[in-house]
Amino acid sequence: MSATDTQPFEAPTPEGVPVLEAKRLVKTFGRVVGLDGVSLKVFPGEVLAIIGDNGAGKSTLIKCLTGAYIPDEGQLLLDGAPVQFRGPQDARSAGIETVYQNLAVSPALDVASNLYLGRERRKPGIMGSLFRALDTKGMRADARAEVQRLGISTLQDVTVPVENLSGGQRQAVAVARAAAFGSKVVILDEPTAALGVRESNQVLELIQRLREQRVPVIVISHNMPHVFQVADRIHVQRLGKKAATITPDSHSMTDAVAIMTGAATV
Ligand SMILES: Nc1ncnc2c1ncn2[C@@H]1O[C@H](COP(=O)(O)OP(=O)(O)OP(=O)(O)O)[C@@H](O)[C@H]1O
Ligand SMILES: [Mg+2]
Fold it and tell me: Does residue 56's CB lie within 6 angstroms of at least one atom of ligand 1?
């Protein structure tokens, strides 16, 4: 039997309705096919990893899930109902929070302000409505509670400017922001790239915590040990297509790399 006759391996999914589902997404850039009919599902309390070589379409896929790109074809469903995001704000309003590959935190602002960036709260009453005064105290208190809830132990002080934080702590702020507001799905593109062992572990713990809170996480990573540590299922992307969906139980890291590079078909 030739490789084209074999169905790609598709690990079983949990029962029920996926929180987020993509059906046969297509996204082209001129003559470059970024995504060629890619489907994906993520269920409550599940960590779905997306792996694949450079240029395999991982970032394009998540951008199509988050309104950053509008797919040429295909469908998105949130809790089983079709949705169309015209931009990232639509996806955020729907409860999908994303930390993009080139992560954006504002270095000059403190941790609390970064958490509330773009969602600043005004003071109650006339001070807020008329004078547009920010509810700094309230936001800091909530930021503190959020940081505690997420167990980011190294972020002791939410009034510290982010530029004074280490790379890992900055990443933690970005992930915390996504975790704080991602009521439906949290999407992380390479959250542990360029982080040290300790800092990476903090981000991985945060992912575990989100899973415990039943918030599905989609995480792109090139780091196979991290992927195999946190993922329930692993979507393998290759040359714009889904090559397989495997699990840490069904396949080894060596298998995963073989599927990624095309050395194996399942
Ligand atoms: N805005 C764009 N304009 C033109 N081509 C693009 C654009 N975005 C992505 N592509 C192309 O689509 C393909 C998939 O790119 P994508 O960024 O999704 O890869 P990736 O899997 O995230 O890679 P990496 O591991 O390097 O981050 C590549 O060939 C890329 O050059
Ligand atoms: Mg990418």
Answer: yes
